[in-house]
């Protein structure tokens, strides 16, 4: 957390054969951590939810990959699960999305 807070978000960094800004790397790590948090707490109703910034970052990443916002009735956790292939789209969701449903999962 200290390194992320202290980092210049415009500084270019290399990781896993890619070069991106420190800000984009931090956002990517936040998305990954939030998705894994949701994995760990999926069946634990009393577990604390992630901070609001985490699901917002996941939604922004998925919207960017999808090229448009998800249906507004989709909760953040549901969008994270279908967007990453942890849950498959229902028949009703497939019908509502039409051809765009074939793009799911957006990343896995």
Structure characterization notes:
- The protein is built from 5 helices and 2 strands, in the order H-E-E-H-H-H-H.
- With 108 residues, the chain is mainly α.
- It has one domain (2-103).
- Strand 1 and strand 2 (18-21) form a beta hairpin.
- Helix 3 (53-66) packs across helix 4 (76-83).
- The longest helix is centred in the N-terminal third of the chain and has 20 residues, at 22-41.
- The protein is globular.
Helix/strand layout:
Blueprint: H1 2-6, E1 12-15, E2 18-21, H2 22-41, H3 53-66, H4 76-83, H5 91-97
Helix pairs in contact: 2-3, 3-4
In short:
The chain has 108 residues and is mostly helical.
Summed up, the domain count is 1
Q: How do the SSEs run, as a string of H and E?
A: HEEHHHH
Shape descriptor: globular
Question: Which structural class should the secondary elements be placed in?
Answer: mainly alpha
Task: Output the radius of gyration.
Answer: 15 Å
Our measurement of the CA-to-CA distance between the termini, rounded to an integer number of angstroms, reads 25 Å
Biggest sheet, open or closed, and with what strands and sense? 2 strands, antiparallel
Low-pLDDT segments, ≥5 res = none
Helix content: 40-55%
Q: How many helical elements?
A: 5
Arrangement of strands in the largest sheet: 1-2
Q: Mean pLDDT, as a whole number?
A: 94
Q: Give the strand tally.
A: 2
Core attributes:
2 strands; two-stranded antiparallel ribbon; globular; mainly alpha; single chain; 5 helices; 108 residues
């Amino acid at each position: 957390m200290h390194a992320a807070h202290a980092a210049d978000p415009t500084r270019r960094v290399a990781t896993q054969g890619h070069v991106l800004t420190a800000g984009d790397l931090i956002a990517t790590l936040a998305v990954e951590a939030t998705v894994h948090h949701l994995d760990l707490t999926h069946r634990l109703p009393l577990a604390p939810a992630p901070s609001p910034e985490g699901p917002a970052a996941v939604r922004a990443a998925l919207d960017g990959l999808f090229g448009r916002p998800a249906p507004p009735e989709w909760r953040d956790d549901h969008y994270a699960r279908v967007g990453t292939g942890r849950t498959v789209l229902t028949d009703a969701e497939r019908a509502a999305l039409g051809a765009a449903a074939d793009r799911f999962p957006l990343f896995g």
